[in-house]
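Morning run. Coffee first, then this:
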Amino acid sequence: MKRSNLSLLICSLFAAGSLNAATIYQGEDGDSIDLIGSFEVGGYLGKDYNDNGEKWDYDSFYSDDTFMSFGFVVKTGQIFAHIDFDYERTPWTTKNEFQQVLDKAYVGWEFENGDKIEFGRTDTAYDHYDQMGDFSVDGAAEVREAGDQDSTAKYRGSINNFKYGISYSTQGWDNYKTDSREGEVINGYLGYFNDSVDVLLGAETVDQRGEIYSVHARGWVGPVRLGGLVSLSDREEEQGYDSKDALTYVASIGYDITDKIETNLVYSIVDVDTENRDMGDDGFRTWVDDSWVAISLNYKYRRNIVLKTEFVTGGEQGSYGYGKVYYWF
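And here it is:
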């Protein structure tokens, strides 16, 4: 989900020292306890189906997608720990109710060169870059990788301009509240990053049910930003149909109007070579060949307060709007 990527960005900013968390404790020996958090207030305008393509069971032009997260980061020397709680809507269900989730609970070790190893309930390695090349707020096609998983061991590091990561997750047991339901997951990435262009390869295998592969890129030419990704999904899904040889293409172009205002245009194509579930009486939308466009306009009020708006049109999903205010500390 796009939401998880925003949370990952926030955590990365804290780790890099780009933002200041609320320090609860600071010891003379360098030990610390920090409070971090984020708020997202907003939702969909004119969208009448959930993330699984089913009709929502309420009649409203506006569908809420409000989200809040808070957590604690504890550091003792090279050892760190992170616990994080989410309060979120459930747009993948027909009721879209609020729920509370233990999103992260892991411990880790940071090596002298900056590499990190983590274990616990956390994001898989692939999840850190599955959205790279997609400049949309919420409306583009996504790489359908595993996301957060229980019992995950992860290693991330870098050598010069290269970044890499790999993770292994055992069988999950949370069948509803989070993404930790895929089973045994192995995934990772390898990327090259410099001042003008980034290129990354990602891959995942899930519990002998299949694989996902993707190629991502993004680059900068003055105020113009270019990006895109290609994903191949060759696996069995849990919702009654296969995604064998399903290709996803996303192409992005963005322009920085000012240092605070940016606009983006994102084109998505889904090419499915599989048998899909038929349209049922409940209004279920099958995952079929499709293409659509997302246009966004974002305003950066401050480095930790952003207003994002988006209009999505075309294809099976029709047209709808999306808007949110993001705040994190």
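Helices lie at 2-16. Good start to the day.
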